[in-house]
Amino acid sequence: MSNTAIAHLDATITHDGKTHTFSQACDHVAHLFDKRDDMAELVLLETRGIGEWLLVLRSVYKSDKQFGQAIAATPLSKRSAQDRNDAMFVANNWDKVQKLNAKGELNSLGASAVRKRLKKAEAVGNTSKGKGKPDAEAQPVNVTATSLANATIKMLKEHDISLADFRKALSAAAKS
Predict the structure, then answer these.
(1) Is there a contact between 10 and 172 (Cβ–Cβ < 8 Å)?
(2) What is the pLDDT of residue 120?
(3) 91 partner at 20 to 30 Å CA-CA among 33, 49, 144, 163?
(4) pTM, entire model
(5) pLDDT 10s digits, 18-70
(6) Residue 80: beta bridge partners?
(7) Contact criterion met (CB below 8 Å) for 86 and 114
(8) Which of 127, 115, 133, 105 is closest to 41 using CA atoms?
(9) Contact at 8 Å (CB) between 93 and 122?
(10) Share above pLDDT 70 across residues of the chain, in percent, rounded to a whole number
């Protein structure tokens, strides 16, 4: 948490000099997520546009090597080959990208992560090659009181919050 935000014992939050109720703060954070998701969608659309341009430019050359050499003499050389390839991949697979994005699976992902997510989605549906089983991270997690407590302790340590401070905040939050 930034130094400009303070959680008070009465479950109010002061951020940048303004005090909010817990509910108001949650509404604000939800709005920030929505705003981020909207921006991510715009980034995805821009990535598609970049990819379409790159596909047209690539079509001028017989090989990837020739294309890469031609790009080396332009401002596009400042962008990595991986970024350019990811953009072309997004453009080439736009229908599939849109389907995953409609399910909310691509929010705030960069082009490289979109590529990986799309390939993973295709692999899960491809049972002919033995890839029909979802991997371990797709399995549901059984949350117990002990696992939740351990995760909370870990987060408290990561954010340098004492157990006593957390207990006070938890008690206050439980009363509201």
Answers:
(1) yes
(2) 73
(3) 33
(4) 0.51
(5) 888 888 888 888 888 888 777 877 888 898 999 999 999 999 999 989 999 99
(6) none
(7) yes
(8) 105
(9) no
(10) 76
Q: For residue 120, with 0-12 CB atoms within 10 Å meaning exposed, 13-18 middle and 19 or more buried, which class applies?
A: middle
Mapped onto helix, strand or coil, the DSSP state of residue 119 is helix
Q: Which of 71-75, 138-142, 152-156 has the lowest mean pLDDT?
A: 138-142
**Tokens representing residue 141 in the block:** 């997690």
Using CA atoms, how far residue 150 sits from 40, 143, 157, 161, 172, in Å, is 33, 11, 11, 14, 21
Question: Is the separation of the CB atoms in 117 and 105 below 8 Å?
Answer: yes
Tell me the two tokens of residue 120: 């993973």
Contact (Cβ atoms closer than 8 angstroms) between residue 22 and residue 176: yes
